[in-house]
Please model this.
Amino acid sequence: MKKKNKMVCDGETENSRRDFLSNASCAIFTALVISGVSSAVALTFPMTEIAADTAQGTECAYPLPSTDGVSIDHDNDIILVRSENRVYAFSLACPHENTALSWRPQDNRFQCPRHQAKYRPDGTWMSGRSTRNMDRFALRLEGQKVIVDTSKPYRSAPPSAEWDSAVLVL
Model:
């Protein structure tokens, strides 16, 4: 049974929280439809396999990703992510027990297939057996190339300024 809105002053009505959330959801969905963006496309990142353009010592060069997405280089065990005008480079290995991470586009996250640890696109830990973020690599931009230095993976724990700074802001 639906509750009636109660009257407040001057004949106006007060909407319930449920009415507000329902109206807000409809407005957001309508805005996405009008703009031509489906909610599924807006929330998922495509995954592609890549290979380094060049590799010299511990450095690998990749083209700068032009759109948000996840690129995995299995030969060098590197994940390159572009998300919200930021680029990150991660180790492909889960920090818990070094199992190769998988990208789950339907959930917009990384997951360890062995112990189900879950990570956001920026590498931050969400849940599961691991208790820290994905390991990041130092990276820099040279022209339209992202240079990833794999000589030392940066761990987030204990708190690490290196891990925090291992990001390209576009």
Residues 47-169 form a domain with the Rieske Iron-sulfur Protein fold (CATH 2.102.10.10). The chain has two domains: 6-43, 47-169. The chain has three helices and 15 strands.
